[in-house]
Design a protein that fits this description.
Layout: H1 4-8, H2 11-17, H3 34-40, H4 44-63, H5 65-77, H6 81-101, E1 106-107, E2 114-118, E3 121-129, E4 138-140, E5 144-145, E6 150-151, E7 154-156, H7 170-179, E8 193-200, E9 218-221, E10 224-227, H8 229-235, E11 241-242, E12 246-247, E13 257-258, E14 273-278, E15 282-286, H9 296-302, H10 323-340
Parallel strand pairs: 3-8, 8-14
Antiparallel strand pairs: 1-2, 2-3, 4-7, 5-6, 9-10, 10-12, 11-13, 14-15
Length: about 350
């Protein structure tokens, strides 16, 4: 069956990928082709991502058509879904950068993906599309068969099940993987402002989305406190407790993971900002330890990102000098919560 009806609803994706997309050959047993899955998905969140990808293609076709043509060839011919997903992430990132910085943005020439300059300040942007683990990513429980209804519970672990059950937990695995994105940093420069753009939009990789709670130090759901994986990957310190589920009822159902490494911003790093681009929002974290002077115009422009989440972002602006204190206070709160609900030995739950 032709894919044309699916592409027709996204005219700019069609202009870039049609008719070659109708001839994509894909081996059975592989995950769906990321481009085909994107245009065929009927979930509202996925359709929003497809629509935004469509808009990004339009922006790039006007700005850098040859770059887009080369990336489209990778999407259409590469045999590895990770590479295709990463290329679609680059397309989205370029389009989002053009949305804000327009003709100032150019494809990078020194290893990084994109760059732009303003008032004598150079900005480097490196794109990373976070992938799932290929092993230990699910538990399929036995199917329950009834007279009318058949059901099965499947647990998903996007970053893998804990490898050391006595030490690790699910959120700890996620923190570890997120902290390791592009950690060699050869694409960045000490003299430039460096931004890591993390694409988390792929609806096949993130079928349940990447919830806003992952960007908070802690969040709460159904009387249990959970650590935000993305926030702790950058701002947590060694020995910070990472909670899968800390019950406020006073008993511990799952042990916390104690960070065995410093969060990304506490290490020696060239990173100044990380931007998480999810299906619903764009959250910006600033490195609270860097001493570079960040110009006001860059902070203003970051607020102009298409889906900028001001409440979820951690920036040292417009009140400069407060971010480090804010991070330290959050870490102190996390440490206190580790024992806040412990009951005295002589108290019994009813």
């Amino acid at each position: 069956m032709s894919l044309e009806p699916y592409f027709t609803q996204y005219p700019n994706l069609k202009a870039v990928f049609w008719p070659n997309a109708d001839t994509i050959k894909w081996a059975k047993g592989k995950p769906p082709h990321p481009l085909v899955a994107l245009v065929q998905n009927t979930d509202d969140r996925a359709k929003h991502v497809a629509g935004r990808t469509d808009h990004c293609c339009l922006a790039i076709s006007r700005h850098s058509p040859n770059w887009l043509k080369a990336k489209a060839a990778i999407v259409l011919t590469d045999e590895h879904p990770q590479n295709i997903s990463a290329t679609l992430g680059e397309i989205r990132a370029f389009g989002e950068l053009i949305w804000v910085w327009q003709d100032k943005v150019k494809a990078g020439k020194h290893g990084h993906d994109f760059e732009f300059a303003q008032e004598g300040q150079n900005i480097r942007v490196e794109v990373f599309t976070q992938q799932h683990r290929t092993k230990r990513d699910r538990i399929e429980h036995p199917r329950s068969e009834g007279k009318r209804i058949s059901s099965q519970v499947i647990e998903f672990f996007p970053f893998g099940q804990p490898e050391r059950p006595e030490k690790d937990n699910v959120q700890g695995e996620a923190v570890s993987k997120l902290a390791g994105m592009k950690q060699d940093e050869h694409q960045f420069s000490e003299s430039d402002i460096n931004i890591l753009w993390c694409d988390l939009k792929d609806p096949m990789l993130w079928m349940f989305g990447f919830d806003r709670s992952q960007f908070a130090p802690l969040s709460m759901f159904q009387e249990q406190i959970t650590s935000g994986a993305f926030w702790n990957a950058y701002y947590a310190k060694k020995a910070t407790p990472i909670f899968d589920a800390l019950p406020v009822a006073g008993y511990l159902s799952r042990n916390p993971y104690s960070m065995e490494f410093e969060g990304r911003f506490w290490r020696k790093t060239k990173l100044d900002f990380v931007i998480a681009d999810t299906a619903q929002r764009q959250i910006v974290f600033q490195n609270h330890k860097q001493n570079k002077k960040i110009p006001d115009w860059l902070f203003r422009d970051l607020h102009r990102l298409f889906a900028f989440d001001m409440q979820g972002s951690w920036l040292d602006w417009p009140c400069r000098g407060q971010l480090r204190q804010k991070v330290e206070m959050a870490l102190d709160s996390i440490a206190k919560y580790a024992t806040a609900f412990e009951l005295p030995e002589d108290v019994q739950l009813i």
